[in-house]
Amino acid sequence: MVMRTQRPGTTVFASTLVVGDGDSAYDTSAECATIIQANTGNSAFTKFWEMTVPAQQIIGFGSGTAAAGGGRNQGFMHFFALDIGTDFEEGILRLVVANARETRSKMVLEQNTQRLHTTTATTAITATPTSINDMIALPLLNAPKAAQDDLLQLWFKTTIAGTTVDAVGFSIPISIWQ
Question: Which domain does 155 fall in, by range?
């Protein structure tokens, strides 16, 4: 996590995290779905996605601000854990920043997933909201940031089990300094 001696660069830009941005064990929908499905019966949170921050970058969850642009100048997020054609696995999604060895971690946001996707479980496309009016806003958070070699992580705990999780998708806004 960013220490007092680390200063963000002068260039900051907004981006998004998607499944494919994950490290090799977490970079496909099928890998993430398998992890969530394997832990459906647990009452604990399970890490299902992780990304190592590249060299010379500092990354924070969220982008923009709700104060400017009438609330439209901020990032919007969505997430789904889906049994394609059947139903959703519902639960609590956590956004976490951890140091490289995972000896320190900080939860940045905890969100109920029922508000993070559509109600149509037919395909990954129909599960993904297409209007920001149907997504949750995520402005840049005044929370710990991740520096080089730190980890951005997503954790999940099932509250309403679906049939079988076979697809996971998300888009989570971030801000990158370099």
Answer: 12-172
Q: In this model, does residue 5 exceed pLDDT 60?
A: no
Number of domains in the chain: 1
* Range of weakest confidence among 1-10, 72-81, 123-132: 1-10
In-domain check, residue 54 = yes
| pLDDT of 16 | 96
| Cα angle 13, 18, 19; round to 5 | 150
Task: Say if 2 falls within a structural domain.
Answer: no
Q: How far apart are CA 101 and CA 64, in angstroms?
A: 30
Decide: residue 119, CB within 10 A, 0-12 exposed, 13-18 middle, 19+ buried.
exposed
Q: How would you class 66 by CB atoms within 10 Å of its CB: exposed for 0-12, middle for 13-18, buried for 19 or more?
A: middle
Residue at 59 is within a domain: yes
pLDDT averaged over every residue in the chain: 91
Residue 54: DSSP 8-state: P
The answer as to whether 17 is a domain residue is yes
Which CATH number belongs to the domain containing residue 54 in this structure? 2.60.120
Rg (CA), the chain: 16
